[in-house]
Amino acid sequence: MRRTLFVMLIAILLAVTGVAADDHGPKVEDLGWMTGTWSGPSLEENWAVPRNGSMVARVRGFSPDGTTNMIELISIEEENDSLVLRLKQWDPGMKPRYEGFQVMKLVESKDRMIRFENTGEGNGSLAKLAYSRPADDKFVISVEVASGQEFEIPLEAVK
Fold first, then answer.
1. 124: pLDDT confidence band, cut at 50, 70 and 90?
2. Which of 1, 7, 43, 104 could hold 85 in an S-S bridge, CB 3.0 to 4.6 Å?
3. What architecture is domain 26-157?
Protein backbone atom coordinates (compact mmCIF):
# COMPACT_ATOMS: atom_id res chain seq x y z
CA MET A 1 0.00 0.00 0.00
CA ARG A 2 2.77 2.43 0.92
CA ARG A 3 4.66 1.55 -2.22
CA THR A 4 1.57 2.23 -4.35
CA LEU A 5 1.06 5.61 -2.66
CA PHE A 6 4.72 6.45 -3.13
CA VAL A 7 4.60 5.57 -6.85
CA MET A 8 1.40 7.61 -7.29
CA LEU A 9 2.96 10.58 -5.49
CA ILE A 10 6.04 10.44 -7.73
CA ALA A 11 3.84 10.17 -10.85
CA ILE A 12 1.78 13.20 -9.74
CA LEU A 13 4.91 15.23 -9.00
CA LEU A 14 6.38 14.38 -12.40
CA ALA A 15 3.14 15.31 -14.15
CA VAL A 16 2.85 18.62 -12.29
CA THR A 17 6.52 19.44 -12.92
CA GLY A 18 6.08 18.71 -16.63
CA VAL A 19 3.02 20.92 -16.87
CA ALA A 20 4.71 23.73 -14.95
CA ALA A 21 7.74 23.56 -17.21
CA ASP A 22 5.54 23.86 -20.31
CA ASP A 23 3.12 26.41 -18.84
CA HIS A 24 4.77 29.62 -19.98
CA GLY A 25 3.89 32.19 -22.54
CA PRO A 26 5.74 32.23 -25.82
CA LYS A 27 9.41 33.10 -25.51
CA VAL A 28 11.66 34.79 -28.03
CA GLU A 29 14.07 31.88 -27.65
CA ASP A 30 11.35 29.70 -29.26
CA LEU A 31 11.94 31.67 -32.49
CA GLY A 32 15.49 30.47 -33.13
CA TRP A 33 14.19 28.85 -36.33
CA MET A 34 13.92 32.37 -37.85
CA THR A 35 17.62 33.11 -37.38
CA GLY A 36 19.66 33.64 -40.52
CA THR A 37 19.79 35.56 -43.77
CA TRP A 38 16.89 35.01 -46.16
CA SER A 39 16.74 36.46 -49.65
CA GLY A 40 14.56 36.67 -52.75
CA PRO A 41 14.30 38.93 -55.79
CA SER A 42 12.43 41.70 -53.95
CA LEU A 43 13.48 41.34 -50.32
CA GLU A 44 16.32 40.35 -48.01
CA GLU A 45 15.92 39.72 -44.27
CA ASN A 46 18.59 39.09 -41.68
CA TRP A 47 17.34 37.79 -38.33
CA ALA A 48 19.75 37.89 -35.39
CA VAL A 49 19.89 35.13 -32.80
CA PRO A 50 17.25 35.54 -30.05
CA ARG A 51 18.83 36.83 -26.87
CA ASN A 52 17.61 38.11 -23.50
CA GLY A 53 13.95 38.39 -24.47
CA SER A 54 14.35 40.09 -27.84
CA MET A 55 15.06 39.31 -31.47
CA VAL A 56 15.77 41.82 -34.23
CA ALA A 57 15.90 41.87 -38.02
CA ARG A 58 17.21 44.16 -40.70
CA VAL A 59 15.20 44.11 -43.94
CA ARG A 60 16.09 45.55 -47.33
CA GLY A 61 13.59 45.83 -50.18
CA PHE A 62 14.55 45.97 -53.85
CA SER A 63 13.01 47.56 -56.93
CA PRO A 64 12.75 45.47 -60.12
CA ASP A 65 16.02 47.08 -61.32
CA GLY A 66 17.78 45.87 -58.14
CA THR A 67 18.12 49.19 -56.33
CA THR A 68 17.20 49.45 -52.65
CA ASN A 69 13.70 50.89 -52.24
CA MET A 70 13.08 50.29 -48.54
CA ILE A 71 14.89 49.64 -45.26
CA GLU A 72 13.01 48.13 -42.32
CA LEU A 73 13.91 47.32 -38.73
CA ILE A 74 11.91 44.74 -36.79
CA SER A 75 12.00 43.89 -33.09
CA ILE A 76 10.17 41.02 -31.40
CA GLU A 77 10.09 41.31 -27.62
CA GLU A 78 8.54 39.46 -24.69
CA GLU A 79 5.82 41.55 -23.06
CA ASN A 80 2.97 40.60 -20.71
CA ASP A 81 3.53 36.84 -21.18
CA SER A 82 3.32 37.18 -24.97
CA LEU A 83 5.33 38.53 -27.89
CA VAL A 84 5.07 41.96 -29.49
CA LEU A 85 6.48 42.88 -32.90
CA ARG A 86 7.43 46.46 -33.70
CA LEU A 87 8.62 47.61 -37.10
CA LYS A 88 9.67 50.79 -38.82
CA GLN A 89 10.23 51.41 -42.54
CA TRP A 90 12.30 54.00 -44.36
CA ASP A 91 12.54 55.01 -48.01
CA PRO A 92 15.97 55.56 -49.63
CA GLY A 93 17.95 58.23 -47.83
CA MET A 94 16.47 56.94 -44.53
CA LYS A 95 13.32 59.04 -45.00
CA PRO A 96 10.67 57.62 -42.65
CA ARG A 97 7.58 56.26 -44.38
CA TYR A 98 5.51 57.14 -41.30
CA GLU A 99 5.95 58.46 -37.78
CA GLY A 100 6.61 56.07 -34.91
CA PHE A 101 6.62 52.29 -35.05
CA GLN A 102 3.94 49.89 -36.16
CA VAL A 103 2.96 47.60 -33.26
CA MET A 104 1.65 44.06 -33.75
CA LYS A 105 0.51 41.47 -31.20
CA LEU A 106 1.01 37.73 -31.35
CA VAL A 107 -2.11 35.84 -32.45
CA GLU A 108 -0.72 32.41 -33.33
CA SER A 109 2.48 30.47 -32.79
CA LYS A 110 3.26 26.88 -33.68
CA ASP A 111 6.14 24.82 -35.00
CA ARG A 112 8.17 27.08 -37.36
CA MET A 113 5.28 29.54 -37.84
CA ILE A 114 4.31 32.74 -36.08
CA ARG A 115 1.54 35.25 -36.86
CA PHE A 116 1.03 38.83 -35.67
CA GLU A 117 -1.86 41.27 -36.04
CA ASN A 118 -1.89 45.06 -36.00
CA THR A 119 -2.86 46.46 -32.59
CA GLY A 120 -3.93 49.82 -34.02
CA GLU A 121 -1.13 51.38 -31.99
CA GLY A 122 1.44 53.32 -34.00
CA ASN A 123 1.41 53.72 -37.76
CA GLY A 124 2.02 51.59 -40.82
CA SER A 125 -0.03 49.78 -43.40
CA LEU A 126 0.24 46.14 -42.30
CA ALA A 127 -2.87 44.44 -40.89
CA LYS A 128 -1.30 40.98 -40.41
CA LEU A 129 2.20 39.59 -40.70
CA ALA A 130 3.30 35.96 -40.46
CA TYR A 131 6.59 34.13 -40.80
CA SER A 132 7.06 30.44 -41.52
CA ARG A 133 9.87 28.09 -42.38
CA PRO A 134 8.38 25.21 -44.39
CA ALA A 135 11.83 23.72 -45.12
CA ASP A 136 15.33 24.27 -43.76
CA ASP A 137 16.27 26.43 -46.76
CA LYS A 138 12.87 28.19 -47.20
CA PHE A 139 11.38 31.15 -45.34
CA VAL A 140 7.96 32.63 -46.18
CA ILE A 141 6.54 35.99 -45.15
CA SER A 142 2.73 36.22 -45.37
CA VAL A 143 1.38 39.76 -45.46
CA GLU A 144 -2.06 41.31 -45.29
CA VAL A 145 -2.19 45.08 -45.78
CA ALA A 146 -4.85 47.39 -44.34
CA SER A 147 -6.86 47.27 -47.60
CA GLY A 148 -7.24 43.49 -47.19
CA GLN A 149 -4.84 42.52 -49.99
CA GLU A 150 -2.83 39.41 -49.10
CA PHE A 151 0.43 38.13 -50.58
CA GLU A 152 3.39 35.93 -49.75
CA ILE A 153 7.07 36.64 -50.11
CA PRO A 154 9.07 33.42 -50.50
CA LEU A 155 12.73 33.66 -49.51
CA GLU A 156 15.64 31.21 -49.53
CA ALA A 157 18.52 30.74 -47.12
CA VAL A 158 21.69 32.63 -48.02
CA LYS A 159 24.64 30.32 -47.58
1. confident
2. 104
3. Beta Barrel (2.40)
The CB-based long-range contact list for 103-108 (8 Å cut-off, 24+ gap) reads 104/128, 104/129, 106/26, 106/82
Neighbouring C-beta atoms of residue 137, cutoff 10 Å: 13
Residue (of 48, 45, 51, 35) closest to 71 by Cα position: 45
Amino acid residing at 89: Q
Looking at residue 69, its amino acid is: N
pLDDT tens-digit series, residues 57-115: 999 999 999 999 999 999 999 999 999 999 999 999 999 998 889 999 999 999 999 99
Amino acid of residue 18: G
Domain ranges of the chain: 26-157
Q: Which residues contact 144 (CB under 8 A, 6 or more apart)?
A: 126, 127, 128, 129, 150
